[in-house]
Amino acid sequence: MRNYLFFIIFLSMISCIDKKTEIRSSETVKTDLTKKPLKKNSNPKTAESKEVYSYTETFADSTKIALPGKYKIEIEQTENDTLMTVYFKLFQKENNKWKLTQNYALSKESAIPLLTEIKDFNNDGLNDFTINYFAAARGANEIRKLFIFSKKENKFIEIKNSDDYPNLAYNEKLNCIDALSVYGGTTTTFLKLNKNTLTEFAKVDFDDGKVESYLIRNNVETKLHSETYKGSSDFMIRFINYDPIEE
Question: Could you tell me which NCBIfam families the record lists for this protein (predicted)?
Answer without folding.
Answer: XAC2610_fam
